[in-house]
Hints:
By secondary structure, this protein is α+β, with helices and mostly antiparallel strands. Helices cover about 50% and strands about 15% of the residues. The protein has helices spanning about 1-5, 20-40, 185-210, 220-235, 245, 250-280, 285-315, 325-360, 365-390, 410-430, 445-479; strands at about 45-55, 70, 85-95, 100-115, 120, 125-135, 140, 140-145, 155-160, 170-180. Strands 2, 4, 5, 6, 7 and 9 form a 6-stranded antiparallel β-sheet that branches. It has a 4-stranded antiparallel β-sheet with strand order 1-10-3-8. Strand 6 (about 125-135) and strand 7 (about 140) form a beta hairpin. Helix 2 (about 20-40) runs antiparallel to helix 10 (about 410-430) and helix 8 (about 325-360) packs antiparallel against helix 9. It is found in: Membrane.
Amino acid sequence: xxxxxxxxxxQMRLYTLTKRQFVLVFVSFFVAFxxxxxxxxxxxxIIVEHTQSASNLHVPSEKLSTGxxxxxxxILSTFNQQLWLLCQIxxxxxxxxxxxxxxxxxxxxxxxxxxxxSYHLIAETPFNRTRQLQCQKECNPLVILHLGYLDYPSxxxxxxxxxxxxxxxxxxxxIDFVLKHYSADFSQVxxxxxxxxxxxxxxxxxxxxxxxxxxxxxxxxxxxxxxxxLLPLLLLYNDPLFPLNFLVNSWVPGMFDSxxxxxFLCGLLLFWxxxxxxxxxxxxxxxxxxxxxxxxxxxxxxxxxxxxxxQYNELxxxxxxxxxxxxxxxxxxxxxFTIGAIYLVYLIYLLFxxxxxxxxxxxxxxxxxxxxxxxxxxxxxxxxITGLRFGTGVLQDNFVxxxxxxxxxxxxxxxxxxxxxxxxxxxxxxxxxxxxxxxxSYFRDxxxxxxxxxxxxxxxxxxxxxxEKATFSSSEEET
Length: 479
């Protein structure tokens, strides 16, 4: 099956690279990746914080457990993208270090201030939610509200607490209200780098398609077919609609961004399954793709739902939190990790089967080694970045809530985008047709032909030597 595919596929640049050129390919990948990391480290912070304490808001001490607290966000722009309001309750007293928890109600009114300084109430009725306060030495910060996009240049939030109680001997010393939003400088960096990656991806896509234009589709290898699909998905991953976030006050561009990212990442997962299985199987019918599409499709549904669930509900209620609907959230989370584990086991199984069957065959071992090596590099870097970014939070209930607020600097953003873009660029270069592919439109397994040629050469050599001996002996007889 594998030899049959080799008989009819376009010769890739991968087969013609020397060891030195292979080293240069990987060095170029790492240099480009680390350049983006360095640029990100030198870039601006992603999240900007502003703190307003209740004492500065001139709230009397006897009103600290009830409010009202009126928080003004100040002037914002579309480059600030989103807005979070959190509160940190500070305690004092003889038992301030004790551990306790309390459930209380939160009431929030949000006013949008237009450019003419007129206030508009976002909702006629206040948003009422229940929050769980947990204190151990100090109290955990609470998310009061989150605005996914900014419809007004400024906001004023009026917050009231109901039923907030503390153990005897403990009272509130002060409350810090923390406003978080994206840095305008980072938004500009994000726009420029998304645009640069978008242009580079478009150029690579055109060059790759141009290099394969001379060959019919049936002659393409499985890697070349998948690259022709992954490169357009990478264009969507870089999000050509991203500037609309700053031109249109709507949730639609953000929703498209979630769809594009989930589609590209799941397409990449599907490529790894099909590549490791398809290298050793030339006939790929419905039964070949169905289980793979089913596994990755469930991952796409779970990942998109997890990323858009809270975003959709916050459009209806800015004080919404996933913990309110924890049953459905945990169900999706368990489904995501279960399907992810099944995918990982299936991928490892296909990897071992491919190596056990093809590692001794010429050219196939090169394809397997390159595909596996680059995949492991990308997975390792991604896991390291995720671990450094979230730590054990990836397994906790607050994972989704902290996705947007746990960035420290531009390096984490540029690392993910640079890694995936340069990974696809490297594969596009290696899997593109070689220079002599035009003359060898069919790249065949030369072992049989070489054996035939060697045998013919040997026969000719034996025949010529015998003929020379016969001629020499006849000349001697004549003399």
